[in-house]
Amino acid sequence: MSSARIVSSAEVDPSATIGDGSSIWHLVQIRNEATIGENCIIGRGAYIGTGVEIGDNCKIQNYALVYEPAKLGNGVFIGPAAVLTNDQFPRAVNPDGSIKSASDWDAVGVTIGDGASIGARAVCIAPLSIGAWALVAAGAVVTKDVPDYALVAGVPAKRIRWVGRAGVPLESIGDNQFRCPVTGALYREISPEQLELQTLEKD
């Protein structure tokens, strides 16, 4: 943690690991055993749960809530006030009226692949996986796995386009092939049913 920047109002558990070059801003709470990679930015008021794993070069924007046991790859973006949940059947109390404790439920997590982005106020309902370089639109409610390079939107979220590594929608050029208008990289749709893309040329 020698080269990490942690402002005085942040609450970082001593057992958490913060990578070199990372910035932890005002009112952030990082719980025990969480791991933050190198060169990450954790924005004001964000919450990082116990044991959450965050890769290098990630941006967690203001007031995002990342509940355990979430796992984020490298270069992941979490937008303002986005939520990664961890309880499939949330209740404050048990059937007998007693208050639930940590031992009364099993936490389930959201796994996010390298380069993926979660838009502002989106909600990802665990358990699920979001593929590499996928893009979840602002305000979406994600209830099932998202493939690599998919753009999903709506409530519940559905795939509406493919995106490249630049994050913008790909343009169809026919024969199940797509081009990124920013980088010129070419992609091929392997299977509409599986909602996967195969890179033909590297970005």
Report on the structure:
With about 200 residues, this protein is mainly β. It has two domains: about 5-165, Hexapeptide repeat proteins (UDP N-Acetylglucosamine Acyltransferase, domain 1); about 170-203. Helices cover about 0% and strands about 35% of the residues. The chain contains no helices and 26 strands. It has strands at about 5, 10, 15-20, 25, 30, 35, 40, 45-50, 55, 60, 65, 70, 75-80, 85, 110, 115-120, 125, 130, 135, 140, 150-155, 160, 170-175, 175-180, 185-190, 195-200. The strands form four sheets. The chain has a nine-stranded mixed β-sheet, with no helix packed on it. Strands 2-5-8-11-14-17-20 form a seven-stranded parallel β-sheet, with no helix packed on it. A hairpin with a 6-residue loop joins strand 24 and strand 25. The protein is globular, with a radius of gyration of 18 Å. The protein starts with a strand and ends with a strand.
Radius of gyration (Å): 18 Å
On the 0 to 100 scale, the average pLDDT is 92
Structurally, how many domains make up the residues? 2
* Coarse morphology: globular
The percent range for helix content is under 10%
Number of helices: 0
Largest sheet: 9 strands, mixed
